[in-house]
Write a structure and sequence with these properties.
The structure is a single chain. The protein has a single domain, classed as SPOUT methyltransferase, trefoil knot domain (Alpha/beta knot), CATH 3.40.1280. The chain starts with a strand and ends in a 10-residue tail after the last helix. The radius of gyration is 15 Å and the shape is globular. The protein has a 7-stranded parallel β-sheet. With 157 residues, it is α/β, with parallel strands linked by helices. α1 packs parallel to α5. The chain is built from 5 helices and 7 strands. Helix content is 31%, strand content 17%.
């Protein structure tokens, strides 16, 4: 299981997703360009001390992301407000890459077309969408639940 962000706009969201993926031991791919410098202080503050625990790879472009060897391991699953299938009706597999778009604009049509699945997180109207980091947490949690991919916790008495 992998998580990917397409050209993120808000450093605090990237920081929160870095923390999310570090806590779940899931690799993160960031597809550039980002709308902020990746050394932005607010992003570092949002990630706190979880940055070193994260496994983050920067991709220079959409084409570099598609060409990466990780794409051969599983499906590209796009989370979008234009999704065709509710999140909970989808069967995740361990090799899937969960892709989330820009906060301001989602993803372009070519990214939609490249996805093997387009998922929607159901929300009550008239709300439009969740925050990016919240959406990533919901999507990743469901994918890990279905694939038994959560980190194993040792019991202590």
């Amino acid at each position: 299981m992998r998580l990917a962000l397409f050209q993120p706009d808000i450093p605090q969201n990237l920081g929160a997703v870095i923390r999310l993926t570090a806590c779940f031991a899931v690799p993160l791919e960031v597809i550039q360009p980002c709308a902020f410098p990746l050394d932005d202080r607010s992003m570092k503050r949002a990630a706190l001390d979880y940055g070193p625990l994260a496994h983050m790879t920067l991709r220079d472009s959409w084409s570099d992301f598609l060409a990466a060897p990780e794409r051969k391991a599983g499906r590209l699953v796009l989370f979008t407000t234009r999704g065709a299938q509710p999140l909970y009706d989808f069967s995740f597999a361990p090799g899937d890459t969960l892709l989330f778009g820009r906060e301001s604009a989602g993803v372009p049509d070519e990214v939609h077309a490249a996805a093997e699945a387009r998922l929607l997180i159901p929300i009550a109207p008239p709300a439009r969408s969740f925050n990016l980091a919240v959406s990533a947490g919901i999507g990743l949690s469901e994918a890990l639940r279905q694939t038994d991919g959560f980190p194993k916790i040792e019991k202590t008495d």
